[in-house]
Design a protein that fits this description.
Length: about 280
């Protein structure tokens, strides 16, 4: 009986020692979690200030802050679990395997995501810019992490994957604040070039929203078999491109008509017969 009570006493003492030891570990882990989360909050503010100072775009800043928050919190939790004596090797391997699988399944999306980071960081264009992507032309309405929304002059909405943008040439018409119109006119060889040039210069400079600086460029571009090819190149603000394009064509046509300047064109139409 005495031996039974001795064994029971030693068992109770061992259990109590383990409870005390584990309670201390739980207390330390709890303190690590509490202090760690406080530190994460302070680091969040410090990282946010750093991103603002680095002029990181408002579109990407919240996303980077969320990634930093999740990463730091996971580190704090792993440290707390390690203090409790948990074996993290299996968990780390599982997280790595899941991350690899997700990365492979989202390979295209990750490419768009990386391209989105480049666009938002390097800023080849910004919201409101007129750009051309391949054969697509329009105004940037929104730059997102995975894609860019572009509105065409015909009010079509283009959702362009960011990876396609970074892999191709992007023409930014708004970067310099001005854009040049390209208007071509044919005139017969018998017309006096100096007279025609003055007519065109006077007409184009009277078109509303045509810029005086840089000055309009007008010259003979080519000698065709039946006419001279005249290039008229006025500058406008990108937002006025289409409005001025239509106004300029009308103004130049009216000016040539009022001064009796001939324009070469085919006067005859030939009609053919349908075959049997």
């Amino acid at each position: 009986m005495k031996e039974y009570f001795n064994d029971l006493f030693h068992f109770d003492k061992e259990v109590i020692d383990k409870i005390i030891s584990y309670s201390v570990k739980i207390l330390i882990a709890g303190l690590i979690l509490w202090i760690g989360m406080k530190i994460v909050k302070k680091l969040h503010k410090a990282i946010e200030k750093m991103l603002i100072k680095a002029a990181i775009s408002d579109n990407i800043r919240p996303f980077l802050l969320n990634i930093a928050d999740v990463t730091l919190k996971v580190i704090v939790i792993f440290i707390a679990l390690n203090v409790l004596g948990a074996d993290l090797s299996g968990l780390v391997a599982l997280v790595a395997a899941v991350g690899f699988a997700v990365g492979m399944s989202l390979q295209g999306s990750l490419g768009n995501f990386a391209s989105g980071l480049l666009i938002l960081t390097l800023k080849p264009y910004k919201t409101g810019d007129w750009i051309q992507l391949g054969d697509k032309f329009g105004r940037v309405e929104e730059i997102m992490i995975f894609s860019t929304k572009v509105i065409t002059p015909g009010k079509k909405v283009l959702i362009v994957p960011n990876s396609k943008i970074t892999d191709d040439i992007v023409t930014n018409y708004s970067e310099k604040g001005v854009i040049r119109l390209e208007i071509d006119i044919h005139i017969p060889y018998e017309e006096n070039w100096d007279v025609v040039k003055k007519i065109l210069v006077d007409a184009i400079n009277k078109v509303p929203k045509v810029l005086q600086e840089p000055p309009v460029e007008i010259g003979i571009a080519d000698f065709d078999s039946h006419s001279l090819l005249i290039m008229v190149r006025p500058y406008v603000h990108p937002d006025d491109y289409w409005e001025v394009t239509f106004s300029a064509h009308k103004a130049l046509k009216d000016a040539l008509h009022q001064h009796g300047v001939k324009v070469p064109y085919s006067e005859g139409i030939e009609y053919g017969k349908f075959g049997k």
